[in-house]
TrEMBL record:
The lineage of its organism: Bacteria, Pseudomonadati, Myxococcota, Myxococcia, Myxococcales. It catalyses: ATP + protein L-histidine = ADP + protein N-phospho-L-histidine. PROSITE patterns: HIS_KIN. The chain crosses the membrane at residues 357-376. Keywords: Kinase, Membrane, Phosphoprotein, Transferase, Transmembrane, Transmembrane helix, Two-component regulatory system. It holds the Pfam family HATPase_c. Gene3D superfamilies: 1.10.287.130, Histidine kinase-like ATPase, C-terminal domain (3.30.565.10). CDD domains: HATPase, HisKA. InterPro entries: HATPase_C_sf, HATPase_dom, His_kinase_dom, HisK_dim/P_dom, HisK_dim/P_sf, Sensor_HK_Regulatory, Sig_transdc_His_kin-like_C. This is histidine kinase. Its EC number is 2.7.13.3. One of its GO terms (molecular function) is kinase activity. Residues 393-608 form the Histidine kinase domain.
Amino acid sequence: MLRRLLPTLVALGFGLLALGWGLVSLQRIFAREREDAHAQVRSRRDALGHAASETLRQVLTRQLKEQIPAIHAAMDNPLAPGERFYLQFRGKPFLPRHTLSIAGEDMPARALYETLSDHLREGPPPAHWESRVTRLRAAEAALVANNLPRATALVEELLRHHSRHALPPDQELPFLLLSVEHLQRGPATMPLVRALLREGLPEEFGGISRGAGLQRDLLRERGSFTQADFDFLQARILRLSRLLGEPTRDFLERARETGEGRLLMPDELTEPTLVGEQWYVEPRGEGIYGISVDSAALLAPITQDMVARGLFGANGHMRLVGGRAVIPARELKVHVDLPEWARAEADIEARYGLKTLLVAACGGLAAAIFALAVVAQQRKYRFLELKSDFVATVSHELRTPLASIRLMGETLERKLAHAPEVRDYPTRIVQAADGLHFLVENILSFNRIDKGRWTLRASHVRLEELVNPLRDDLASATFAPVELITDMDDAELEADPSLLRLLFSNLGRNACAYNTRSPVRISVQARMIAGHGCTVLFRDNGVGIPEHEWENVFLDFYRLSPQGQDVHGSGLGLALCRKIMKLHHGDIQIASSTPEGTTFALTFHEPRR
């Protein structure tokens, strides 16, 4: 068959290759068109993104330059805002402020404050505090006596002594706080005492290195106190500030700001850089200056400006392309998104998808045509081969019984009266004639059912009445003894009796033909299943059927390979059985098969009402 199909396959193959080459070339053209369209959209997006990126770099540089004075002010004044600034000078970070309190719950500053407060009221002070406490008592006494000139002189003497004999911050601040509390007189407080609270002292009283005001000094020296001491001193200073009408808002804000933590910067920063998408820093001389930034807020006016200039629509937006912790300013990249660009790219993909689908459909159609042509040619030659095989088989099968009938008839005619050994010839003639009749009936029935020309004559029948005549049929069809065991369970069906007899006769004759045992044992068991119909199990003790052939034996004209015996047949028996079952809306399958025998399962479904 392959030799017959080879010219057709070669012609179809060349045609399919030519069509495939054309479809592949067409698909490449479509892909190139798609890439060109995407490139145009990307070009517009990249141009706007480059312009936005350059504008962003200029805005960052300008904003930092504008904030340089504020950074210097935050560096010099602890009360100035510093949380949004970064300053590193000669490798030492100053902003944002990151001074933390001493760990622990001890309160030495409060203890000193309370001790000095007790000694001011009564009793001699400790030896190393005697000069300060004595001067403070004298100044307070002058104020009580309303002797303002003497009080001013005593306060100046106290502050000069305090400046000459500097103390650690954890001692100095509690003493100065206690001094202001005792020397304040509300709105009438002398300027020198009021300066101790916020503005700071003149240089002659230590106002350069110390004496910048209790508010500033407490913030600057936070690292010298525990958190409990800091909270205690802050509360006392706040109370005094409010009592004297001094501002406290910036003091409170800086107290919350201080201790927020150190900002980590990359080593060897040599160019303007965006750090963590939150800080913009620039090296300037020996220092590194920076400001906190919000990229979305910075991009908003740039977006509005481009919309006003008609570069893109009002529904477009920009975003900073991040993904890195440190981005040099020269590498800043802004991504521009426009809904119309997304729609354009979606349209490009949709058109490309449609074209690809058409190419694939053409390829699939060509492959289907090729396959159908091959199958058609194969079936044509297969049909011719089957027809040839069928003619040869039927011719042989018809010739054999006819020759037997002729030979035995002639012999019977000559010798019947003279030789008793030929007395069984009439029986053998009948068997041969029955075999010929059965073969012809199978062929005719198969042809009528296969062509749809069989009219089903269904009637109410009992399976017992259809199976019992099988004994006589098999007895006349074979010389081997046959044992037929039935268990019909009073099964009844709506079926064509003649077709079912033909079905059981084919199964029985196959059981006798493919059998090497004596006697041939056949068991037919039927069970009615409520709501599902009837199941019939037909068992024999034949040679069995290999499992890989279970479905093949039901094919038209299919015969198993000989297994040590020569069995005559047309290959239509089981194929006819399946067609009969399908005509009754049922099915036949091989339930099991071993060298000890085969079991066929026949399923009859209840008719739909």
